[in-house]
Amino acid sequence: MAYTVTEAARYAGTSPATVRRWIEGYENRDRHMEPVFAEKARAVDEPLRLSFLDLAEIVVVATFTRHGGRLNKMRQARRHVLSEHPDLDYPFANLRLKQLGGEVLHIIDNEMGGKAIAISLGGAEGEQHSLPGYAEDALDLFDADPFGLAERWYPYGRDIDVVLDPRFGGGRLTIAGTAIRSETITTRFFEYGETLDYIANDLGVERATTEALVRLARPV
After folding, report:
1. Which one-letter DSSP state was computed for residue 3?
2. pTM
């Protein structure tokens, strides 16, 4: 399943231009920015398509930046994990980050200075660190495969039956446990003018579920 830059940006709550800069970098006469995900470079004439794991990493990085995390620290933290833990593919889409991430961010905080991202936990045998709560919360919205890699995402929390699973529904948002895709809801709402209450009652789902799908899955 492949996602466009526009789709990834919408799911992550940021702009397509931002996602593209994170992947390709940015340079003009006055500014140079290295990409966060440099290994995703492609030939100039190839369309930029993203996997579910790419999308998951973008969602997590966007969460950090929304809470004031500096992008250059995210870039360095990702490079550090790839260098020190070569078996850890897609570092920001791997739930092992919950165990490793605090110490990695502490190292990057010390190297780069500025406002610390890692949270100090103290500890009798030496100071320990964890990810900030908002990052752990973001990772908790993903289910993982046996290797720790994200395989399913609940963008509105596990109490709302909206899920994005690359194995079902063409990799688009669906109502959990069903084959009902987001496009079914948005078409009925935007094109046919049906109310969210009517759609929810007709499909036998909670209104909050249809509302979440409409909010996140507007036609591109």
Report:
1. B
2. 0.88
Residue indicated by tokens 């290797």 = 147
CB–CB of 160/173 below 8 Å? no
Q: For residue 12, what are its two tokens?
A: 């992550």
| 3-class DSSP state of 26 | strand
Residue with tokens 């070569």: 86
Could you give the CA distance from residue 88 to residue 80 in angstroms, rounded to a whole number? 11
Domains of the chain: 1-152 (no CATH), 154-219 (1.10.10)
Check: CB of residue 90 under 8 Å from CB of residue 148.
Answer: no
pLDDT in tens, 42-52: 555 677 889 99
CA gap 61, 200 in Å, rounded: 33
* Chain segment 21-43, per-residue pLDDT in tens: 999 888 877 788 899 987 665 55
Structural contact between residues 143 and 83, judged by C-beta atoms closer than 8 angstroms: no
Q: In terms of DSSP H, where are the helices of 67-96?
A: 71-84
Q: Are 65 and 105 in contact (CB under 8 A)?
A: no
Phi-psi region of 204 (alpha: psi -120 to 50; beta: other; left: phi over 0): left
